[in-house]
Every structure is written in C-alpha cells, then in structure tokens.
Amino acid sequence: MPKEQATGEVSLSKTLLLPLSARPIEALVAILCILLAVYTIDTFRTGLFHLQHFRGPWWSRYTRLWICKTLASGNSAQIFVDINKKYGPVARIGPNNLITDDPEFTRRILAARSHYTRGPWFDSIKINPHISNIVSERHPGKHNHLRYQMSAGYAGKDIPDLESTIDERIVDFVRRIEQDWLSTVEGTKSFDIARRIQYLTVDIITHLSFGKPLGFVEADTDKFNFLATIETQLPIVQHFSVILELNTWLSRAANIKWLRKILVPSHTDKTGIGMIMGLSQQVIKTRFGQHAEKKKDMLGSFISRGLDATEVEMEISISLVAGSDTTATAMRSMLLSLISNPRVYSRLIEEIDGAVARGAISSPITEEEAKRLPYLQAVIKEGLRRFPPITQLRERMVPPEGDWYNGTFVPGGTFVGLNAWGLQLNSVFGDDPEVFRPERWLIEDKERLQKMGQVQELIFGYGTTRCLGIPIAMMNLNKIFVELFRRFDIQAVNPQKPWTSICYGIFFQKDFNVRITRRAPA
C-alpha cells in the first residue's frame, strides 16, 4: 500500500498562509488569541445601538467571539447558511459585522465602480507583512494594476503549452491509478483519493508556474510537509482576520529582526511555505539578470509584464496555496456527488461512452471537446454551485457615507461578509436548491438560465474581484472526470461516511477512501 500521509514533524511554530501570523509558536498564538478576543468585547452602548436594525445571534452584537467560535467549529459554511436563513438576507454576526446571502446586494458591493472597499480581513492573506499580493491588495488602483499584469498568465495567453501541460499531469495521475490502485475481483486496494487529488493540483500549478511539477504524484507523499502545515496552522490563522488588533500587533512585531525570524517564513526553511519560497527563489534567480532565461510559463508571463522578483515570489506562493486547494476541493466534492448519485453517474457515463464511440473526443479530451458535452457541463456547474470551494467572509467596508439596504441604513465602516454557500441556495435555483441536480441547467427557459448563471458565477467573485484562476480551474474540471470515468468505475468504500470534510474558510478533506476498478469496454 502507498503511504497515506507524509512523514516528518510539522513545525507548529511556522504557519503557512498569513505572514503576520505566519509562524508563531502555536500555544503562544492560542493564548494571545484568547486574551485579545476578550479584549475586543465592545461596549454595551455600541452593542445596543450600532446596527440595531439587523438581527443575529444576541451575543454577536457585543463581541467578535461569535465569529471566532464559528470559524473554530470547522463547520462555518453551514453555520453561516443557517444564520441567513434564520435572520434574513443581511444578518448581524459581530458588533460591526454583517453577512449577506443576497445576490443583488453582493453584486452591488463587488461592482467595478462600487464605493465599498476591501476591509482589514484581506491583510491576513499576506505572505509577507510588507508586500501585498493579488488576493490581499486592498487599494483598488493597485489591485487593478496587479490584475492587468497577471491576467494574461492566468488566462493562458502567455502560456502556449497550458492545455498540454494539464494533459500531461492528468495522464500521469491516471497512470498512477492504473499502476498502484486498481482493484480486481480478487481483492480491493482502497486508498484516500482526496489527498491524491490535491497532489495532482499541486503538480499542475507548479508545472504551470515553474515549467516542471514538484512531483507530489510521483512521490505519493506530501513533500516538505506543505499540505500538513496548512492543515495544522489555518485553524489558528483564520482568527487573525477577525481579531484585527492581534494582526496589527504581529505586523509591527515582524519589523523587529529577531522576532521576524520567528514570525515570517524564510527561504531556508525545510518545510511549509518557506521551503516553497526557497524553491521559487532558486527558479526566479535564473529569470532575472544579464543571462536571464525566458520561458513561456506563468513565471515568465508575470516577469514580462513588470512584476519584480519579490512580487513574483509572493504571487507564485499565494497561487500555489489558493489555487491547488480550491481546485482540489471542487474535484473532490464533484466526485463524491457523482458516485453518490447513481442516476447522475449513469447519465454522465452514457454521455462519455457515446462521445468515445462517435470519435467526438480525443485522449486526453480537449477543452473544446469537453465544452460540447452538455451533461458534463451541467455536472460541473451544479457541482460548483452545490459546493463552492471557498467560504471565507472576504469582508468589504461600507463607504464612509454609509449605504442603504431595503430601506435600512448601514453605517459607514461596517464590515459586510459574503456568504458563498448561502448565495448558491437562492430561490432562483428552484424549490430544491440543496439537491445536486445537474438537470436544472438543461432547461429550455433561457431567461431563467441566465438568472441562475448570474448567481452561480458569484462563486468566483464579481467585477474587478473575479478570480483570475478560473480558466485554469475550469480546464482541469473539463478534463479530469472524462479521463477517470472513460476508464474506471469508482465507488466509496464507506458510503455511510464517505469522507471527512472540515471547513476553515477553505476545506480540508480526507479519508475519502475509494475502490477503483477498470471498466469493461462499452
């Protein structure tokens, strides 16, 4: 049996995602979180009169501890859904915090010319406390300029081998299944496909970024304890987006040389984000200077459009963390939905087999061929709708002059969080929005399809905040299921508890043990 998890110890003093919290000793961080969370309990005057017209859990009006408790539960996505169901499309979850699942309000907040701005929540997404990245940049002008510099790389315009690179990695993944994990009538080789899917997405992102993969699939292990570090630290780190005072304190502490060595990832680290930064730096050094290599990969695209070495390093790091995890979550959740729904599973297999028989798809399938498979497209749309891979609040600040929502004034400076899961349960999807039913996307009513599509696309943001990585993610989704199901039958080993899925803004999914057999020819 292949190893199910990486060996080696994870340094609890080194976090991955956020530079300001990036590597404190876990126990110290926990203590500071508690102390500062208690400190942030707002006065009864503020609790009684600020945002008094918005309903929510009674104690959320006085303290941010309600948000901290929800984030720490590992079930925040569903809790936020329940909050908006109970208290309305705009609900109060903190002394100065609202959350909305209203699509129209969300679009107004995120619109290109909106006066809403990114709140302090985004400061917690920095890899380096002094350098913003495409995810954390709060200044609208600077953020738009970064998007301009990076959009061609993410869209594949500067990467002619984008599709063939993804093909190569998926073919390698399929080959690994055939070599090591196929079950037969004589016996079962069950394995955790959740972890292996993330190995695949890490290899895809690094291959597109550097011109070669890190080799997670080949090694069948979590190299450098990269994923383990995320999973160990994110449950702590997410609180830094709520306890803003602690985030500010750590930012200042990082300016002190000896504290910086403790708090900020280093290129000399042997595990986690620091190790990835070290590898990135080695490659980046070959791309600058008199004898710089010029390659048509994501790194080359960023450099050609004006990013300096430090900026490139930060952007590659954040794309690896954010891109690999969210794409893996989309793949895993859709796979579970498919193998848990025999009717949907059978219909997709029928469409794939029919396309193979007609010679309508290549091996591996091209993206254009995949787009001509209507049921596959419906499955992908429905899978993303039913299980959005990011549930972080991504709070925006109400402009200083305030705003109005359905006749109720929202004071300037209020933080408004976005309920990603709640948005996708809107009544526009019919009377069964909680059901995974791809057929809802195959109706003839074009007006309703348009309305559903306008809500579904909010998964990826809106306007100038729309995710740049959509083309890469969609290409992965268009290919992976066809390449798996044209060859294999996949079943969950334990249908009663098929996996463990925990939400900390992004999802940690494991114990998705499956049995894979080779399909008989159609």
Task: Give a written overview of the molecule.
By secondary structure, the chain is α+β, with helices and mostly antiparallel strands. The chain has a single domain (26-518), classed as Orthogonal Bundle (Cytochrome p450), CATH 1.10.630. It has helices at 26-39, 44-49, 65-72, 76-87, 103-110, 140-155, 162-181, 193-210, 216-219, 226-237, 244-253, 257-263, 272-285, 298-304, 309-339, 342-357, 367-371, 374-386, 420-423, 446-456, 470-485, and strands at 90-94, 97-100, 117-118, 191-192, 396-397, 403-405, 408-410, 415-418, 488-492, 500-504, 506-510, 513-518. The strands form four sheets. The protein has a five-stranded mixed sheet. Strands 4-12-9 form a three-stranded antiparallel sheet. The protein has a two-stranded antiparallel sheet with strand order 6-7. A hairpin with a 2-residue loop joins strand 1 (90-94) and strand 2 (97-100). The relative contact order is 0.16. Mean pLDDT is 89; it is low at 1-24.
In short:
The protein is α+β, with helices and mostly antiparallel strands and 522 residues long. It is 48% helix and 9% strand. Helix 7 packs antiparallel against helix 8.
